[in-house]
Sequence to fold (189 residues):
Amino acid sequence: MYELLFKYLQNKTGISEKNFSECSPYFKLKEVKKNEIILREGEVCRSNYFVNNGCLKFYSINDEGHQLTRYFAFESKFGTALSSLIDQKPSFEYIQAIEKSELLMISRQDFFQLVNTVPQINTIYRDILEMAYVTSQKRIYGLQGKTALDQLKWLMEYQPKILSRLSNKEIASYLGITPFTLSRLKSQL
Fold:
Protein backbone atom coordinates (compact mmCIF):
# COMPACT_ATOMS: atom_id res chain seq x y z
CA MET A 1 0.00 0.00 0.00
CA TYR A 2 2.86 2.42 0.81
CA GLU A 3 5.42 1.30 -1.80
CA LEU A 4 4.76 4.09 -4.28
CA LEU A 5 4.72 6.74 -1.54
CA PHE A 6 8.01 5.44 -0.15
CA LYS A 7 9.59 5.46 -3.61
CA TYR A 8 8.34 9.02 -4.17
CA LEU A 9 9.68 10.27 -0.83
CA GLN A 10 12.96 8.41 -1.20
CA ASN A 11 13.56 9.84 -4.69
CA LYS A 12 12.73 13.38 -3.57
CA THR A 13 14.33 13.40 -0.11
CA GLY A 14 16.38 10.26 0.50
CA ILE A 15 14.15 9.34 3.45
CA SER A 16 15.25 6.20 5.29
CA GLU A 17 12.98 3.20 5.72
CA LYS A 18 12.99 3.86 9.47
CA ASN A 19 11.85 7.49 9.09
CA PHE A 20 9.28 6.46 6.51
CA SER A 21 7.86 3.76 8.79
CA GLU A 22 7.30 6.46 11.41
CA CYS A 23 5.43 8.67 8.92
CA SER A 24 3.44 6.12 6.92
CA PRO A 25 0.76 5.39 9.58
CA TYR A 26 -0.48 8.97 9.17
CA PHE A 27 -1.53 8.15 5.59
CA LYS A 28 -4.86 6.33 5.39
CA LEU A 29 -6.03 4.35 2.38
CA LYS A 30 -9.05 5.80 0.60
CA GLU A 31 -10.57 4.01 -2.37
CA VAL A 32 -12.85 6.10 -4.54
CA LYS A 33 -15.12 5.26 -7.43
CA LYS A 34 -14.88 6.75 -10.89
CA ASN A 35 -16.49 10.23 -10.91
CA GLU A 36 -16.73 10.35 -7.12
CA ILE A 37 -16.50 13.88 -5.72
CA ILE A 38 -13.95 14.11 -2.90
CA LEU A 39 -14.32 17.83 -2.21
CA ARG A 40 -17.04 20.24 -3.31
CA GLU A 41 -16.78 23.94 -3.91
CA GLY A 42 -17.58 25.73 -0.65
CA GLU A 43 -16.31 22.95 1.60
CA VAL A 44 -13.12 23.40 3.60
CA CYS A 45 -10.33 21.08 2.49
CA ARG A 46 -9.03 19.06 5.41
CA SER A 47 -6.79 16.51 3.65
CA ASN A 48 -3.91 16.10 1.28
CA TYR A 49 -4.02 13.19 -1.17
CA PHE A 50 -1.27 11.07 -2.68
CA VAL A 51 -2.42 9.18 -5.77
CA ASN A 52 -1.40 5.54 -5.57
CA ASN A 53 -3.49 4.58 -8.57
CA GLY A 54 -5.93 6.48 -10.76
CA CYS A 55 -6.42 10.18 -11.40
CA LEU A 56 -7.88 13.19 -9.60
CA LYS A 57 -9.26 16.25 -11.35
CA PHE A 58 -9.26 19.72 -9.78
CA TYR A 59 -11.79 22.08 -11.31
CA SER A 60 -14.20 24.95 -10.81
CA ILE A 61 -17.49 25.75 -12.53
CA ASN A 62 -17.94 29.13 -14.17
CA ASP A 63 -21.11 31.25 -14.27
CA GLU A 64 -22.21 29.55 -17.52
CA GLY A 65 -21.96 26.13 -15.87
CA HIS A 66 -18.79 25.02 -17.70
CA GLN A 67 -16.04 23.13 -15.94
CA LEU A 68 -12.65 24.83 -15.87
CA THR A 69 -10.01 22.23 -15.05
CA ARG A 70 -6.89 23.42 -13.25
CA TYR A 71 -4.94 20.24 -12.65
CA PHE A 72 -4.86 16.47 -12.98
CA ALA A 73 -3.01 14.39 -10.37
CA PHE A 74 -1.93 10.99 -11.68
CA GLU A 75 -0.01 8.24 -9.88
CA SER A 76 2.87 9.36 -7.66
CA LYS A 77 1.54 12.90 -7.30
CA PHE A 78 0.10 14.80 -4.40
CA GLY A 79 -3.04 16.82 -4.93
CA THR A 80 -5.29 18.97 -2.79
CA ALA A 81 -7.22 22.23 -2.86
CA LEU A 82 -4.06 23.93 -1.63
CA SER A 83 -5.48 27.37 -0.82
CA SER A 84 -8.30 25.89 1.22
CA LEU A 85 -5.98 23.41 2.93
CA ILE A 86 -3.59 26.17 3.97
CA ASP A 87 -5.99 28.89 5.09
CA GLN A 88 -8.95 26.67 6.05
CA LYS A 89 -11.41 28.78 4.07
CA PRO A 90 -14.06 27.32 1.71
CA SER A 91 -12.63 25.84 -1.46
CA PHE A 92 -13.35 27.49 -4.79
CA GLU A 93 -12.84 24.18 -6.59
CA TYR A 94 -13.93 20.57 -6.68
CA ILE A 95 -11.77 17.47 -6.43
CA GLN A 96 -13.10 14.48 -8.35
CA ALA A 97 -11.75 11.03 -9.13
CA ILE A 98 -12.09 10.64 -12.88
CA GLU A 99 -10.92 7.05 -12.72
CA LYS A 100 -11.38 4.47 -10.00
CA SER A 101 -8.60 5.58 -7.68
CA GLU A 102 -6.61 4.46 -4.68
CA LEU A 103 -5.44 7.37 -2.57
CA LEU A 104 -3.32 7.77 0.51
CA MET A 105 -5.01 10.51 2.49
CA ILE A 106 -3.39 12.50 5.27
CA SER A 107 -5.29 14.96 7.42
CA ARG A 108 -4.25 18.60 7.42
CA GLN A 109 -3.35 18.38 11.10
CA ASP A 110 -1.16 15.29 10.64
CA PHE A 111 0.43 16.65 7.46
CA PHE A 112 1.50 19.92 9.08
CA GLN A 113 2.66 18.09 12.19
CA LEU A 114 4.97 16.03 9.95
CA VAL A 115 6.02 19.16 8.03
CA ASN A 116 7.11 20.68 11.34
CA THR A 117 8.83 17.60 12.76
CA VAL A 118 10.18 15.54 9.85
CA PRO A 119 12.68 17.37 7.61
CA GLN A 120 11.91 15.11 4.62
CA ILE A 121 8.19 15.91 4.79
CA ASN A 122 9.04 19.60 5.08
CA THR A 123 11.04 19.17 1.86
CA ILE A 124 8.02 17.51 0.21
CA TYR A 125 5.76 20.37 1.30
CA ARG A 126 8.18 22.90 -0.16
CA ASP A 127 8.31 20.81 -3.35
CA ILE A 128 4.49 20.72 -3.53
CA LEU A 129 4.35 24.52 -3.17
CA GLU A 130 7.10 25.09 -5.72
CA MET A 131 5.63 22.66 -8.25
CA ALA A 132 2.17 24.21 -7.87
CA TYR A 133 3.67 27.60 -8.67
CA VAL A 134 5.83 26.38 -11.55
CA THR A 135 3.01 24.32 -13.06
CA SER A 136 0.59 27.24 -12.95
CA GLN A 137 3.17 29.58 -14.47
CA LYS A 138 4.00 27.13 -17.28
CA ARG A 139 0.33 26.65 -17.96
CA ILE A 140 -0.44 30.37 -17.98
CA TYR A 141 2.48 31.31 -20.20
CA GLY A 142 2.40 28.12 -22.25
CA LEU A 143 -1.25 28.55 -23.19
CA GLN A 144 -2.01 32.25 -22.84
CA GLY A 145 -2.49 34.03 -26.14
CA LYS A 146 -1.91 30.91 -28.22
CA THR A 147 -4.25 29.44 -30.77
CA ALA A 148 -6.15 26.33 -29.75
CA LEU A 149 -3.93 24.24 -32.05
CA ASP A 150 -0.79 25.64 -30.43
CA GLN A 151 -2.29 24.92 -27.00
CA LEU A 152 -2.82 21.29 -28.03
CA LYS A 153 0.76 21.05 -29.30
CA TRP A 154 1.98 22.51 -25.99
CA LEU A 155 -0.02 19.90 -24.12
CA MET A 156 1.44 17.13 -26.28
CA GLU A 157 4.95 18.30 -25.45
CA TYR A 158 4.66 19.16 -21.76
CA GLN A 159 1.83 16.99 -20.43
CA PRO A 160 1.43 13.99 -22.77
CA LYS A 161 -0.10 11.79 -20.04
CA ILE A 162 -3.22 13.96 -20.15
CA LEU A 163 -3.69 13.16 -23.84
CA SER A 164 -3.04 9.45 -23.48
CA ARG A 165 -5.21 8.83 -20.40
CA LEU A 166 -8.15 11.19 -20.51
CA SER A 167 -11.27 11.69 -22.59
CA ASN A 168 -11.68 14.53 -25.07
CA LYS A 169 -14.21 16.09 -22.68
CA GLU A 170 -11.62 16.25 -19.87
CA ILE A 171 -8.85 17.52 -22.15
CA ALA A 172 -11.12 20.17 -23.65
CA SER A 173 -12.05 21.38 -20.16
CA TYR A 174 -8.35 21.71 -19.33
CA LEU A 175 -7.67 23.70 -22.53
CA GLY A 176 -10.84 25.80 -22.26
CA ILE A 177 -12.29 24.62 -25.59
CA THR A 178 -15.18 22.40 -26.64
CA PRO A 179 -14.75 18.66 -27.25
CA PHE A 180 -15.81 19.26 -30.87
CA THR A 181 -13.03 21.81 -31.33
CA LEU A 182 -10.54 19.41 -29.76
CA SER A 183 -11.54 16.62 -32.18
CA ARG A 184 -11.15 19.00 -35.11
CA LEU A 185 -7.72 20.10 -33.89
CA LYS A 186 -6.52 16.52 -33.41
CA SER A 187 -7.36 15.81 -37.05
CA GLN A 188 -5.05 18.70 -38.07
CA LEU A 189 -2.00 17.16 -36.38
Summary: The two ends are 40 Å apart (CA to CA). The first helix runs from residue 3 to 13. The beta strands are 28-32, 37-39, 47-53, 56-61, 67-73, 78-79, 94-97, 101-107. The CA atoms of residues 10 and 16 lie 7 Å apart.
